[in-house]
Amino acid sequence: MRHLLFSALAVSLALALPAQGRAAGFAACVDGLKRAAGKAGIRQSVVREALGIAEPDARVLRLSTVQPERRIPIWDYLAFVVDDQRVREGKAAMRKHGATLRRAEKRYGVNRHVIAAIWGVETDYGKTAGRNFLPHALATLTCRGGRREAFWRRELLAALRIVNARDLPLAKLYGSWAGAFGQTQFMPTTYRRLAVDFDGDGRKDLVSSVPDALGSAANYLRRAGWRTGQPRLIEVRVPGGYRGPEGRKRKAALDSWASRGLERTDGRRLGGKLRAGLLRPAGPDGPAFLTFRNFDALYAYNHAETYALAVAHLADRLAGRGPFRAAWPTDDPGLSRLERRRLQELLIAGGYDPGEPDGKIGPKSRAAIREAEKNLGLPVTGRAARRLYRALGGR
Ligand code: CA
């Protein structure tokens, strides 16, 4: 669960202050947070250790105001989020934690492939849960001012309450810059509401306990309205020139979709009373899906249709189903994480500077890609994609 899109204005105002005044303002604000935590019953030792900080967290300030260069196309996003490596490692993780997943499926009624897919998309099965110290990050976001101050303050107090309840030591409170943490990335208030002790050791530990993390994700989905045994999405073919209703929320019975000429791409008959909405994430020329109530539960986990689509698709892949039948409307498809890393290596070998070859495509990689595209006479996109990859000798 991530929280994005805050006004950059407050930060630019804060940064305009002389350094000394800024530090004093921050210290006074943190003192106020310490008093609030004391009033909320947090032990003084926890308050002192958590909030013994003198300055805002520079990285959090930077990350919270970075404007994404532009939305990346959905085929790029899905190519690296649901790549063969994540499917392979997900199957291995499911074998290793099979007993836990089956138990969570039984207790919460949520399909085990879906639970594993959330885990895979959120933190790559527990490998990348974030490295920001939450009290520092959340104090920074609270004390920079801005319209979401009360939101951050609530999350900070919730994080301290988790420590106060001895579910987690302070040293485990590391996560995203925006406060989501643990193997299934809960915000602190969500953690307090919905985390479960699924391994029965008396503590809710979504950081180190795989059973607690997976059980909690399943509990979240159940509370978000998951319906046991119902589908998430199915891929469909839409008749040419279709002009009917569209969108996740504009649901109709499968029978009614069939009467509008839609067909399943897997050859099975489309029909019944279950309700679904028609989602065409890349418009009329790309893959089309009917999405059900359970897709909305995935959407509730992290408010983006692309995210819900990635989780639903990864779950299908983990269950042994293939890629989407329809192609995305592009002649320059996206790359897997392995290929992204390989592309960076090829750029370095070609004399460009994309930064560390880590598979992450940041501003430096994008600049190197644009430069290479220009030199090779290719359309300049700045994307890590197949055309440049091939042109540089990738296979
Ligand atoms: Ca536990």
Structure description:
The chain is α+β, with helices and mostly antiparallel strands. Among the domains are: 86 residues, Orthogonal Bundle (Lysozyme); 55 residues, no CATH class. The strands form two sheets. It has a five-stranded antiparallel sheet with strand order 4-6-7-3-5. A two-stranded antiparallel sheet has the order 1-2. α7 packs across α8. The site of calcium ion (CA) has 8 residues, from loops. Calcium ion binds next to loops.
Search tags:
Lysozyme, binds calcium ion, two-stranded antiparallel ribbon, 50% helix, 7% strand, alpha+beta, 5-stranded antiparallel sheet, 395 residues, 18 helices, globular
Secondary structure: elements and pairs:
Blueprint (H helix, E strand, L loop, with lengths): L8 H8 L2 H21 L4 H7 L7 H8 L8 H8 L2 H13 L1 H11 L3 H12 L8 E2 H10 L5 H16 L9 E2 L12 H7 L15 H14 L9 E5 L9 E7 H6 L3 E2 L10 E5 L8 E4 L1 H9 L3 H14 L18 H13 L13 H13 L10 H6 L4
Antiparallel strand pairs: 1-2, 3-5, 3-7, 4-6, 6-7
Helix pairs in contact: 2-9, 6-8, 7-8, 7-12, 8-12, 8-15, 9-10, 10-11, 14-15
The structure holds calcium ion.
The site of calcium ion has 8 residues, from loops.
Short summary:
This protein is an alpha+beta fold and 395 residues long. It has helices spanning 9-16, 19-39, 44-50, 58-65, 74-81, 84-96, 98-108, 112-123, 134-143, 149-164, 188-194, 210-223, 254-259, 293-301, 305-318, 337-349, 363-375, 386-391; strands at 132-133, 174-175, 233-237, 247-253, 263-264, 275-279, 288-291.
